[in-house]
Amino acid sequence: MGTLHVAAAAALTTLVFAGATTAANAEVKIGAVLSATGPASFLGDPEKKTLEMYVADINAKGGINGQQIKLFVYDDGGDPNQARTFGTRLIEEDKVDALLAGSTTATTMAIIPLAEEAKTPLINFAGAVQAVYPVKPWNFKTPHTDLMACEKIFEDLKKRNLTKIAMISGTDAFGKSMHDQCKTVTTKYGIDVLHEETYGPRDSDMTPQLTNIKGKAGVQAVVNPGFGQGPAIVTRNYRQLGITVPLYESHGVGSKQYIDLAGAAAEGVRLPAAALLVAEKLPDNDPQKKVVVDYKKTYEAKTGQPVSTFGGHMYDGLMILVDAMKRAGSADKAKVRNEIEKTRGFMGTGGVVNMSPTDHLGLDLSAFRMLEIKNGDWTLVQ
Prior knowledge:
This protein is of the alpha/beta class.
């Protein structure tokens, strides 16, 4: 009898350990490296908040394929070296199944090679075109590219018969990339760049550069490729100098923080952005309206902060990844990568996503809306 008890106890112990092992394995590991603090926190903070609240919601509803999501989130402070360090840690130590990482172009470009080498699916949130082109097998992204922003701006300029412009661009990775991308399509849209100026990420006064632009004869509009506080300073200085030609910003200022920083000077500024910023103002028959209104209400209710396009990019990335894992039936990296690439007709906050082996973004120009700031708020340009 004693022997039977010992045998039964041993069997039970084995079952308990087996159960513990199964439980430990019954999770999907997702890693994130975001700029939650530092100069790019207006990008990384809403991304982090969005990721955490929607993962909690997914887990509460049973997880992915019956497995809970275990989240690993690191803050790189906007530093590409830190991004590389944390990306390596996620892959080598935390052994994540997938990455949702890269708030800025610079931090993203530090992470992409790590994901490629480790053959780990990565969805990034950078603005520049080089964050998704040329296409790399394991790398995807959700935000519209800087090239698309240039084209949307140039389309609007043409409609207004404004073809002679000046550019004032940030020297950061995004600002430089967008400047370069805009220059590649000037001929396509019949745009003539009469003058160019630049500013650094730490510059606190762009009056000298803007004075040069003001003195340039024939300039009909000004385009500012940049993100962060720089564009808000440009906007304030622009009005202080009494420059009256239209000012265009990039999608890099797609948060209420820009309007708050620029104040009354932002009146009349135009920019290409996701529909999310004008969610409730969309026509009821707009197929994107439900998605953006639902996300906006959820985010604002849970955080007490105004919605930004940047948190929306994380929402899209997470949902694309979760859908891919469900279709793959597991977190197997190669299967998930293949399913992300097969994403078709996904209605996100950034637009309708149709990916392919030659397009790891999947958005076209219709995903951008042209907005104008009126009375301290976003409005749709008709």
